[in-house]
């Protein structure tokens, strides 16, 4: 049976509260009221974090900010902030200034920045008086890894970019003696649920290297890596912590964008994560066409959960194309040219059967015993700490 037929024959059920559906590439299940597990998971987490009283949230935020401010690194920064030019990280940069933090702003240039993203970054840094460190990836290596992922027919083509961002942030923090990394991820707009298979682990270096070994063509000499041992070193010996400060404020995407436009001359670039041309093409063209996934379902559902969009609005928006057909074609030409791919080769890759990431081997499989022992040791050490306290 070919894939198109499989997709066509699958009958989707859509959640009655959000707009997520089930399907072969999700773990979505429904209760007897037709509400999905993602809605329930969000509720449970939000009760513990988002919906706790304003005063308690404020106190927590104050405590975290004063802890961050206590440790200035060798170069005078108390934290690092990764800035993509998108709404979440831009708003975090704006708030960090209001909170009196001194971040070193780091931007990752993986070769796919849109013009608007670059303008946004410079506007923010200039207006807020931040120092900007732009890390430019070796394009030949990065192109080789991204292409390897496309050839491997796996679903999460964003792993190389995200891996590279996390690895670089840790590396810079460690070199400069900075103990805190500010991350724009947040529950209100980016709930880290595990109910969809398009989101593969961004820190699985074994999977990344195996995919590249099989489908890559050049040696990786400069690509920043974040394996299990590097993570253990950064987190437990260098004691570098990642903090998600947008979870402590009433983060409303629409209001945040208005503030950014008014205060910093920031410009909107359309869909979520569309500040990168590759991401726009991957989310708006490749995911729907090859994997039959419309990522807007999760983005809009997230806004429904946090009370920033109604279900009706979400369904109405979903009927529109991911972005204009004309821009999709322009992006396709641009992406193929940048990758050095012929149209026929690309179409063949688009038609190839989907392969789960796990097929190529994972960190969990390779270090299963070590991970088991480490988890046990950490559990025991945490319970001792709790008892002592
Ligand atoms: Zn739901």
From TrEMBL:
InterPro entries in alphabetical order: N-acetyl_sugar_amidoTrfase, Rossmann-like_a/b/a_fold
NCBIfam families given in the database record: WbuX
Protein name: LPS biosynthesis protein WbpG
Naturally occurring in which organism (per UniProt): Candidatus Gottesmanbacteria bacterium GW2011_GWB1_44_11c
């Amino acid at each position: 049976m070919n894939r198109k037929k499989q997709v066509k024959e699958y009958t989707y059920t859509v959640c009655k509260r959000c707009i997520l559906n089930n399907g072969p590439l999700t773990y979505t299940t429904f209760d007897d009221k037709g509400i999905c597990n993602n809605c329930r998971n969000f509720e449970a987490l939000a009760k513990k974090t988002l919906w706790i009283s304003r005063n308690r949230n404020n106190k927590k935020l104050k405590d975290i900010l004063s802890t961050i401010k206590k440790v200035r690194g060798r170069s005078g920064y108390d934290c690092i902030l990764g800035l993509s030019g998108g709404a979440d990280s831009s708003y975090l940069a704006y708030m960090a200034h209001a909170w009196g933090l001194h971040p070193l702003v780091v931007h990752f240039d993986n070769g796919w920045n849109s013009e608007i993203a670059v303008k946004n970054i410079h506007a923010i840094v200039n207006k807020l008086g931040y120092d900007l460190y732009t890390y430019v990836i070796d394009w030949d290596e990065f192109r080789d890894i991204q292409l390897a992922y496309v050839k491997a027919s796996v679903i999460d083509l964003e792993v190389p970019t995200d891996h590279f961002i996390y690895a670089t942030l840790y590396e810079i923090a460690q070199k400069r003696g900075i103990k805190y990394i500010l991350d724009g991820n947040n529950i209100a707009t980016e709930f880290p649920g595990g109910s969809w298979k398009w989101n593969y682990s961004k820190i699985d270096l074994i999977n990344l290297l195996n995919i590249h070994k099989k489908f890559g063509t050049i040696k990786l000499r400069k690509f920043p890596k974040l394996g299990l041992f590097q993570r253990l070193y950064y987190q437990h010996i260098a004691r570098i912590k990642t903090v998600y400060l947008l979870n402590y404020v009433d983060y409303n995407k629409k209001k945040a964008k208005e503030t950014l436009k008014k205060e910093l001359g920031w410009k909107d670039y359309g869909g979520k994560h569309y500040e990168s041309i590759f991401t726009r093409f991957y989310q708006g063209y490749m995911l729907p066409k090859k994997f039959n996934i419309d990522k807007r379902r999760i983005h809009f559902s997230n806004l429904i959960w946090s009370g920033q969009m109604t279900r009706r609005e979400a369904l109405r928006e979903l009927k529109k194309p991911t972005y204009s057909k004309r821009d999709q074609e322009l992006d396709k030409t641009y992406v193929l040219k940048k990758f050095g791919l012929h149209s026929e080769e690309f179409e063949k890759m688009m038609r190839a059967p989907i392969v789960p990431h796990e097929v190529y081997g994972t960190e969990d499989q390779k270090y299963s015993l070590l991970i088991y022992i480490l988890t046990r040791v950490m559990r025991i050490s945490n319970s001792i700490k709790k008892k002592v306290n």
